[in-house]
């Protein structure tokens, strides 16, 4: 494998343009027009292909000749930490991926998620009550964006109320910016041990929750206790930081687009809210490093051949700005746009398992927060908001707000 | 419009249900697609086309 990189190959990732925290780096938008499949250079000198067009991303993400197995040579690693060791079936190919994923799809079915809406509404309302009776300004990330998904996942998994505080403290410690590596590791270990023990309790005393369903799979011989625990941890990891960042980033973006925010605040039509959420998912991108894959066979795409063993980076934030897919001003936030075909949740068999839950949470959050606190606004200038340019998941570290 | 589905390909994201709930449903046990109507009326055609387009597993086929 050649890792020789000519000077013309751009480094990946690069920073967004100054003052444009919601837009992909201009260099990748330009590549989409000029060289939609082209080489970039990573930190380790490797040169995977960067895929920037919507249609090509969809085609490759749905192609069985493309693997998510991060152990394969040529897989594009975005940092020296490796990562992915705790991501379970997210880093497995079919048929093993499909076998494990199908064991946990039922709780995320559209109707079951819809049945959780009143519970999520109560969580959001209680947190808004807390904001309104607490001090201001307040950091919306710590006081609202992080607890919403943790409390929802607690309910989904079946974490007893008496353990909510432990669960929340450790879930937050895993991703807190100021946490040391030791604190993160300890919190992650606490959660793993806790969920393992909780699966044991569900084996003895099943309830109506996801861990009890996983426990039933253990009894049926489909899963080991360890696999069931890993899936529980995976659901927590996958659903927490992503949703929290989307809540905070979406709130910042809506505040910067007051006309759009006004449309959302004034409606009580769930269809309008749902359409707005799809557009926010299209326009914003918490997965700003795209999706990593490796070709396992030669693939002809965009007039060239990607060879077996070559890495692929699917930059879906740029695909979601592709005028071929979104012809009307794709770089504009327009919450009335029909954006349902966006690929913010990915595409292909690895598309986000929890997307229906994420959608519903975001619908409840955006509509409730701005309706109940209509004067909600930033407490500092946009230039003082610390955006997570260097984090694995994009968003804001802090969002001081007042009203 | 004739609709066919491939349950073996389905990954259970339920986007077809969101797009056309009178044509698609999900199995209780694993969220896999169930076809309620393989020959939906014309007023469902847009939703069904949408479902086929957004299906991440390419598990919905249409013959018009």
Automatic annotation (TrEMBL), chain A:
It comes from the Bacteria. Keywords: Heme, Iron, Metal-binding, Monooxygenase, Oxidoreductase. GO terms for molecular function: heme binding; iron ion binding; monooxygenase activity; oxidoreductase activity, acting on paired donors, with incorporation or reduction of molecular oxygen. Pfam families: p450. InterPro entries: Cyt_P450, Cyt_P450_B, Cyt_P450_CS, Cyt_P450_sf. Signal peptide: none annotated. Gene3D superfamilies: Cytochrome P450. Belongs to the cytochrome P450 family. This is Cytochrome P450. It comes from Streptomyces fuscichromogenes. The lineage of its organism: Bacteria, Bacillati, Actinomycetota, Actinomycetes, Kitasatosporales.
Automatic annotation (TrEMBL), chain B:
InterPro entries: Fe-S_cluster_ET. The keyword Transport applies. It holds the Pfam family Fer4_15. One of its GO terms (molecular function) is 3 iron, 4 sulfur cluster binding. Its cofactor is [3Fe-4S] cluster. It comes from the Bacteria. Keywords: 3Fe-4S, Electron transport, Iron, Iron-sulfur, Metal-binding, Transport. The keyword Mitochondrion does not apply. PANTHER family: FERREDOXIN. This is Ferredoxin. It comes from Streptomyces fuscichromogenes.
